[in-house]
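Troubleshooting: if your tokenizer reports a length mismatch, compare your output against this known-good record of 892 residues.
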Amino acid sequence: MAALLESLPTPASGSSQDSAAGSWYQKAARCRWLAQQALLPSAAAGICELRALGSDEDAAVREAAVRALGALGAQGGAEEARLALVEVAECESSGAVLTEALEALRVATRGAEEPTGTVHLRAAAVASQVVRTPTTTNNNNNNNNTVADLLVAALRLLEQVAAVDDAAVVSAVAARCKDSAPTVRTVAVQALAALSSGRVLLAVLAGDSAAASPLGSTRDPDWQVREAAVRALARVGARSPQARKAAAAASCDMHAAVRAAAAEALRHLAPQNDADCVSLLCDLCADSSSDVRGAALHSMRRAASRPDGSRPYAAVKACLECWENSWDGLLRQLALLTAAALAGRNDPEVVKCVARGLDSRDEELRMAAIAGMPLVGDGDDELVVAQLVRRLADCHPPVRRAALKALCEVVPVGNQVAVQLLVGRAGSPSIDVRLAVLDGLRQVACRGDATATEAVLERLDDAEARVRAAAVHTLADLAASCDSDEVITQVALRLEDVDPAVRASVSEALPHLASSGNRKVLQCLSHCCRSMRPPPHRESIREAACWALAKFAQKGDGQAIAVICESIDENYPQAAAGALRALVEVSLPGDLAAIDAAAAALAHKEQLTRDIALEVLEKLADRGAAAPPASLAAFAIVFEGSWTGGSIKGSKIFWNCDNQQVTPFELRGRSILSTSCVDSEGRTFPCWARLDAYGRLRWDFGEDWLRSTEPADSEELETTSLPALCGAALIPAKSPDELSPRLDAVAESQEVASEDVGDAYAVAAVAALLKSKDATVRQTAVVAVPRVAGRGCRAAIECLLQVMQDESVAVRLAAVESLAAVAQVGDTLAIEALRVRLEDQERAKESPSGKPVGPCVGMCAAKALKKLVTSREELVQIASKLKFTGPSMRGF
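Known-good structure output:
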């Protein structure tokens, strides 16, 4: 509709119903406005007004009305607009307006559901009257184009709305086939082909009258008319020798479009296996025009096929010559498809012809030959397979890729001929050929094929890294899933390859080569995790082996976890980082050995390793609530026995000290116990121990305890000191009035006892690092505590209290922040520890200048207190009791 209305002028603003009596410009603008308004549901009034404007005395107004009605008639259900168009056309005297009306009717009636309705009958009558009206077109007459356009519009409308075999209409259209205008003759021939039967059509196009007057026939002077006439001959059918003769004559036309139309017409006119027709089509297959050759090939398949299935040699030869001489890819494909249809698949002559193209110097022809092989032969033909495999060694990469693609399409999986040919080229000097052969074996050979597997195993030692990586990927698809030790060993040991791509391919391939939990794989991976290859590849190999182990081993595999933990070596930071990441993939949350290894990595020198260890601990720690006492009672027996620092029986610890101290203990987890120690001054200190994965009882202070088989025979055991630090190290020597309340007394003063929230074992593993002499390690351990413990975890709070008076300001600052993150609101023990830190005025120092930076410890403690106190009054009370005598370092 937009196209039909675009030539109409835009209506002026403020136009109204009275503007229709004005100038032609205003009336035309009114037509456009009405067309736009008539798109609304209430359009009847607008169509009536347009019908009235269609009889205006001004031709420009009538033309505008016709265009507006045409735009409305093209809309579904606008029957009134189409009727109005017919009425305008019936009364119109202007050729230009009538042409516009007929074209609008053709568009409006296109696809109508009732071709025999009133609109169609009246439109056909109008168009037929125009066609029958005698007109002359003189080349010197300026009105010649208008008359030709009118006739073309009428003929196209008749082709669409007139009834088939209507004698009057067919007679009028046939007469127009002799019109002097080539355009009119072309449209008339097309309309005649749609409206008349074969007899009338043949008489006009190729009959005796055509011989006397060539206009409108297959011998018309204009090539477009000849093309339309030849295409119309196809409607006559194969029973007319006269039509075949005319089409055969047109096959020698000077214009390529006419020859192409003749080739298409012969497909419908000639009987099957007609010798003359096949000869003509063979000649057309060698035509200079690709359109003609394509049309001839389409017709050749039907015309040259024989009922007895014999081979039409001439037709096949013509198709193969067309394939060799054509440059168009689709035409070449059509030529081979036609040859294969006529001669049958795997025809030796056809296959050899295509194979000759594989040896051409022209890359395009080699590509065409490779693409044609699947069209003319099957994968069971050894010649086809051999030729495609031979092209894998082509010097041009596109040809190799095309050959490999064709080989995989043609050859069925498991074809031994193809496998043997590929194996023979696996040792080619060309890297690209070796890669192509491996890719071919991966797609052609069956899984478990011994010949292919052996050839690929040899490529694991190839000098080119890309070939080695491809060999590993190929073995993952080829090797039988029978846990073959030979294949597993050779592939796994490729983890020691110097190329990272090869090592990565091994990690991906191992799960496909062996079943989960295969001990041979674990043995090889363990060897690679301990690799002692010369630097700089040692760390990379260990890292790759850890990742391979993480992808292969089952979740929670103890042997795999032990190997990975062993690889977390401080001397190899890159490998340690990779092992820590792999540890998360293998270990289950709460795995003791994994937690020990990750906690030990917090003491490494590299900051990156410590950061990764923090993340790993956070993922491994079981931050759920503590288990109920009934379930923990079963674990108490693991602590019983004689140790280097004392004996444990039942729920009591008998210390090896002078006063023969005996203290009860409580279980905090599967491997954690907590108790209390009393120093020489009678002060009580909470302490706890963790039984690690190696059987050591690791205390939060002092030395670790080891199991003793003969404790009574050793005097050293009798003199072993308490595991806890001495009282002077924990609380400074002060007068009794200045001493802080005992920690056990503070704990007893809390109104509500809270459960441990977090992994007590992980907390204990981290707290063991608080004994380190390196301040950086202690700081890292303090930062790790909130990662493994939830808010309210008593074990975490107790271990943080030990470092609140650490000699390093960085450790104390970290302890204040961690305590604020772990303690619950109202925790008396944490509030008291932070209150003591309020007098600590020391600040962190910038390295290497030594300049103090950041807030002091006391300021951080004050901010932490705001988060833990329950009320503002409590905060005011703490501040009022503070005896601040001036800045002092560490508040001691």
